[in-house]
C-alpha cells in the first residue's frame, strides 16, 4: 500500500492498492501480449466476456433448447476464482459535500439512503494506465424504507422515467451514470460512532446487493475495441457507506466480476437469507445450470475445490476498488447555494416552482451569479421534469456547467430564449403558498402544473388575441393553440 501525507479521515487518491488487482491494460498485455497496434483482419479480438447460457442456433442436428441440448451448445463447468484485474482502479468523489448531503438524510431520519452516482471516467495519473471514476453528483431516486434496508421500484415506469431525466441532465453536462451508493449505518449510542458491521468475518456486500450490482453492471457494459462483442466487463461501481473498525463512517467501493455478470445474465444466482452466501438457482425447464465449483484453502493449507451448490461465499464475485477525494477539489457543479434534493418530502424538502424562484432570485440580475446558481445537477433535473425548457435551453445549461470559462455569456444567451421567458412566466404564476411554505410532493407538482398551464395560456394569448370554437365539442378556446383545451382534438 502506497500512502501520502493526507490528514483527512478518508484517503486521498494517492492511496492506491498496488497488488490486489491488476489494471485492465496491464492484465491484457500479460495474458495476450502487446496488442496496442491494429489487429490483422484474420485475427479475432482477444477479449471476450464469459457466457454461461446455452448457445442458441446449434447446428448439431437436435431440437433447440430446452427440447434438446448437446456438448457443443451447453456451457462448460464454472470454476469461480477471484478476478485478477479490475475495470476501474479508483472512485474519486469530487467534493466532500456529496457524501455529507447523502448522510444528512440518515442523520435526520435514521433511515438508510440510496443514490446513483453521476460523473465521468478519467485517467488515474498516480497509477500507470489506471482509470478512475470521478463522481460529480448523486441522484436519489424514489425509495421506501424497510426494516432491513431500502426498497426500489426497479423496472417500474415512474422509476425508469426518473432515470431517463437524470441521464438526460448528465448527458447535457458531458457526464454519465458511473455507479451507485447506499448507506448501512447503525448508531452505537456513543457520539459520532456507528457499528462496524461489514468486515472479513461477516460480509462486505450482501448477496442481494451483489445481485443488484451485477444487474446494474449488465445495464452499463464497457465499450472495448479489443472485445469480440464490442464490450468487455463494466466500469459501473458500487459504494457502501458504513462503519469502519474504529466506529467512524467510512466508504468502501466494489465491482462485481465479469463472471458474476455472466451468472446474473444466465439467471444462475439468487440471494440467500445468509448475507455472505449466494445461492445457485435450481435447474428449470428453460434454465440450464452447469456444474459450479470454487476453490479455497483448507485447515491443512491446501487448495481444494468445493461444489458451489447450494450456496457459495460472495467474496468470489467481488473486486475491491480504492476511493477518496482529490487533493484540490474542483467540482463541475459550482453552485454556492444548493438546490432542494429530490424525493425528500419526508424531511420537508420539496422541489417546487417556488424553490426555483428563490434559488435563481438570489442572482439579483447578475449573469455571472446566475451561471453559478444554474450549475446544480438537482436543479437541472427538476427543470427537465417540468417540461418547460426545450432541448436547446437544456443544452445551454449543460454547457454552463461544462464550460465555466464561457458560462456568463451562455447565461446571457439563455435568458433571451423563448423557453426561459416561459419559465419566468410560470414562476410569476406560482402560488404564494408555494413560495412561502414547503408542501407535500403532490401539492408541489400540482402547483407546478397549474403554473405551467397558466404560463402557456399567457404565452398563447400574447401571440394571438383571438379565440376559436372547437368543431368537435364547441368549447371556446383562447389563443393560437393547435388543439382543443377540453377534448384535446386538433383545431383543424
TrEMBL record:
PROSITE patterns with a match to the protein in the record: MPN (PS50249), ZF_RANBP2_1 (PS01358), ZF_RANBP2_2 (PS50199)
Top-level taxon: Eukaryota
One term of GO molecular function: ubiquitin binding
Alphabetical list of InterPro entries matching this protein: MPN, Npl4, NPL4_C, NPL4_Zn-bd_put, Znf_RanBP2, Znf_RanBP2_sf
Keyword Mitochondrion part of the UniProt annotation: no
Subcellular compartments: Cytoplasm, Perinuclear region; Nucleus membrane
Keywords from the UniProt entry: Metal-binding, Zinc, Zinc-finger
Gene Ontology annotations for the cellular component aspect, listed alphabetically: nuclear membrane; perinuclear region of cytoplasm
GO annotation, biological process: ubiquitin-dependent protein catabolic process
Protein's membrane topology: Peripheral membrane protein
Record carries keyword Zinc: yes
SMART domains (UniProt xref): ZnF_RBZ
Annotated MPN domain residues: 91-232
Limits of the RanBP2-type domain: 464-492
Principal location listed in the UniProt entry: cytoplasm
Pfam families: NPL4, zf-NPL4
Protein family (similarity comment): Belongs to the NPL4 family.
Name by which UniProt lists this protein: Nuclear protein localization protein 4
Organism listed in the record: Coemansia reversa (strain ATCC 12441 / NRRL 1564)
Amino acid at each position: 500500500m502506497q500512502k501520502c501525507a493526507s490528514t483527512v479521515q478518508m484517503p486521498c487518491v494517492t492511496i492506491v492498492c498496488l497488488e490486489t488487482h491488476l489494471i485492465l491494460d496491464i492484465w491484457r498485455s500479460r495474458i495476450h501480449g502487446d496488442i496496442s497496434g491494429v489487429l490483422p483482419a484474420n485475427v479475432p479480438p482477444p477479449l471476450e466476456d464469459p457466457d454461461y447460457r446455452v448457445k442458441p442456433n446449434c447446428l448439431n442436428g437436435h431440437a433447440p433448447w430446452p427440447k434438446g441440448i448437446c456438448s457443443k451448445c451447453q456451457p462448460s463447468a464454472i470454476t469461480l476464482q477471484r478476478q485478477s484485474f479490475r475495470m476501474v482502479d479508483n472512485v474519486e468523489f469530487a467534493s466532500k459535500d456529496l457524501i455529507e448531503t447523502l448522510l444528512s438524510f440518515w442523520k435526520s431520519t435514521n433511515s438508510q439512503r440510496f443514490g446513483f452516482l453521476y460523473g465521468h471516467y478519467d485517467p488515474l495519473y498516480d497509477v500507470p494506465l489506471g482509470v478512475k471514476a470521478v463522481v460529480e453528483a448523486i441522484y436519489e431516486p424514489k425509495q421506501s424504507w424497510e426494516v432491513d434496508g431500502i426498497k426500489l421500484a426497479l423496472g417500474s415506469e415512474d422509476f425508469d422515467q426518473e432515470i431517463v431525466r437524470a441521464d438526460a441532465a448528465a448527458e447535457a453536462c458531458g457526464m454519465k451514470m458511473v455507479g451507485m451508493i447506499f448507506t448501512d449505518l447503525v448508531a452505537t449510542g456513543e457520539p459520532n460512532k456507528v457499528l462496524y458491521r461489514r468486515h472479513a468475518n461477516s460480509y462486505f456486500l450482501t448477496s442481494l446487493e451483489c445481485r443488484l450490482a451485477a444487474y446494474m453492471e449488465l445495464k452499463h457494459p464497457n465499450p472495448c475495441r479489443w472485445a469480440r462483442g464490442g464490450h468487455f466487463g463494466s466500469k459501473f461501481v458500487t459504494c457502501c457507506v458504513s462503519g469502519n473498525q474504529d466506529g467512524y463512517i467510512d466508504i468502501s467501493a466494489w465491482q462485481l466480476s465479469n463472471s458474476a455478470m455472466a451468472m446474473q445474465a444466465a439467471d444462475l444466482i439468487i440471494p440467500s437469507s445468509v448475507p455472505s452466501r449466494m445461492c445457485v438457482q435450481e435447474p428449470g425447464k428453460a434454465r440450464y445450470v452447469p456444474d459450479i465449483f470454487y476453490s479455497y484453502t483448507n485447515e491443512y493449507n491446501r487448495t481444494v475445490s468445493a461444489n458451489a451448490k447450494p450456496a457459495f461465499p460472495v467474496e468470489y464475485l467481488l473486486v475491491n476498488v480504492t476511493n477518496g477525494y482529490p487533493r484540490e477539489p474542483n467540482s463541475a457543479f459550482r453552485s454556492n447555494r444548493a438546490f432542494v434534493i429530490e424525493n425528500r418530502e419526508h424531511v420537508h424538502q420539496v422541489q417546487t416552482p417556488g424553490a426555483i424562484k428563490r434559488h435563481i432570485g438570489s442572482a439579483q440580475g447578475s449573469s455571472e451569479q446566475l451561471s453559478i446558481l444554474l450549475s446544480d445537477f438537482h436543479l437541472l433535473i427538476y427543470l427537465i421534469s417540468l417540461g418547460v425548457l426545450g432541448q436547446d435551453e437544456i443544452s445551454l445549461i449543460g454547457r454552463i456547467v461544462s464550460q465555466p470559462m464561457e458560462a456568463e455569456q451562455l447565461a446571457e444567451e439563455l435568458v433571451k430564449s423563448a423557453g426561459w421567458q416561459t419559465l419566468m412566466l410560470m414562476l410569476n404564476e406560482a402560488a404564494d403558498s408555494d413560495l412561502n411554505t414547503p408542501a407535500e410532493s403532490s401539492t408541489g407538482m400540482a402547483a407546478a402544473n397549474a403554473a405551467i398551464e397558466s404560463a402557456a395560456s399567457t404565452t398563447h394569448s400574447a401571440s394571438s388575441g383571438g379565440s376559436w370554437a372547437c368543431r368537435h365539442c364547441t368549447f371556446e378556446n383562447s389563443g393560437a393553440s393547435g388543439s382543443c383545451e377540453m377534448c384535446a382534438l386538433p383545431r383543424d
